[in-house]
Amino acid sequence: MNLDKEQLRKALVSLSVERTLLKIGEPVYEKVVKQLSKEYNCYLPDCYEHPEYLNKVLKKIFGDSYLSIVDAIKKELDDQLMEKPIETFICAISE
Amino acid sequence: MIVGLGILVATFFGKEVVKMVTDFTYIPVAGILVVLSITISTRFRSTGNHGKAWLLFLGIAISWFIAETIWVINELVYHQNPFPSSADAFYLLGYPFLFLFSIQYLKPFKKSISKKMIISTSIIAILVLIPNLYMTLHNNSSENKFTIMLGAIYPIADAIVLIPAMIGIVLFFRGEVNFLWTLLLIGILFEVIADTGFQYFTLDNSYYTGHPIDILFIWSYILFSFGIYNHIQIFKKKAKIKDPKNLFDNKLEN
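Structure tokens for the assembled complex are given below, as produced in the milestone run.
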């Protein structure tokens, strides 16, 4: 039961990041996915367990404005923000 | 550097030669910007805010390319004074496109734009305008009012587009996309200097095509082109990465 819930959160986080990046532009999404794979051998859903990778990739591409993207992801996850693991994820990508 | 040197060398062969060299430099330089804009617009396929932004940039490149072509035709084919002419309508059309491009590009990052940032960049833009406004208001030129006013519109338009360009540099500081914004900002600054210089030498009746200030106009095209080329490199299409852990696909397989 717990495992399913975790899997669901992971999928939800991945979908929210994907939706946020696609709103900026498809190549932006592709670039983030490519960079995650190239530098950390990691895929988008893995960012749920390793939010620091997503944080570093966003910073590398967009510099200081990465926080706006974090805000947009937070907005996408609005309904789940009360859940502790989602809150931890948001905190980690905001650092 | 080579373009600048070419124009300076051509100056020694007389005004007719430098006019020809400069006019024929503008066309490929503006043409390259169109090609690169088409490439990046195709890459983004109007997806998301940046997709729309690049379509607007294509609008800039096309309108300035048309303007350069009209300028060359007026000067070399019809032997008319190309300023003022219908080319100005296309030069000026590029500015709303450039402003809207910046707005559309920066839109996803609007939360990082503070009021302080807007106010300080606006003050810098106004300061940049002062020499031009002074020249326009205190001149003894024999040029008609329309020509003087038209010449003054360019630095004003440059100053307006300078604001989002400066915001872009601050926003993307330390990021890969900052290179584009740095080159856009330097390119716009060159335009400001060149347009102010153009206004000064036109009022002075000493401007001719191939004047050293034309080098700045050409350099701004080159800087814009390098910025876009770098962006194409950052967001170039690579082989699709297949995610073996894709949760949704796995669910379907199960």
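The CA atoms of residues 243 and 249 of chain B lie 9 Å apart. Chain B has nine helices and no strands. Further analysis is deferred to the final report.
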